[in-house]
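Lab notes, practical 5.
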Amino acid sequence: EYFVALLSLSLIGKMLIWRGMQSSKRNQARILRTMSYILSCTIILWAIIEIWLGRFNLENDLPLIFCNLFALILPVFAFYRTQRSFNILYYIVLSGAIQAIITPWLKLNFPHYEFLKFWTVHVGLIIFVIYQMVVLKMLPTRSGIWQTFVFIQIYIVIIVGINWVLDAN
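Output from the prediction step:
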């Protein structure tokens, strides 16, 4: 299941990147926005399913993990493509999502929705970043390392506050 999911989504990513390279600038942006909507809707649908099943728990299920949070707000990144936002996506997504793919922690297998969400989000985020690099010619900068470091520090302070209020971890 691991290799089938990884191979299938990688092929989809390759097709999207190939399609983007063959497209006009306008269609390239549309493909990027469509990817962002799909990933964002994946997180929203997952939360709706958890709420519907009565298993949503604020302490554990808020989309505050980097990959879930970025997938949720990805449409903002797709519309406002700045170098700073790309740098943050590049350094956090590629390090975090690749680590998640190499060492997946899944309780349930295919076709469970958590399995599908995990693979869609993690591989999708990587495809999103690679698409920006290959098709839109955006590349990370050295200053992006420091921008990402500052972003993470601010994020940690916010998360610590939220965890303190919710008595969560």
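Observations recorded by the TA: The helical segments are 2-22, 25-52, 58-61, 66-79, 83-102, 113-134, 142-166. DSSP finds seven helices and no strands in the chain.
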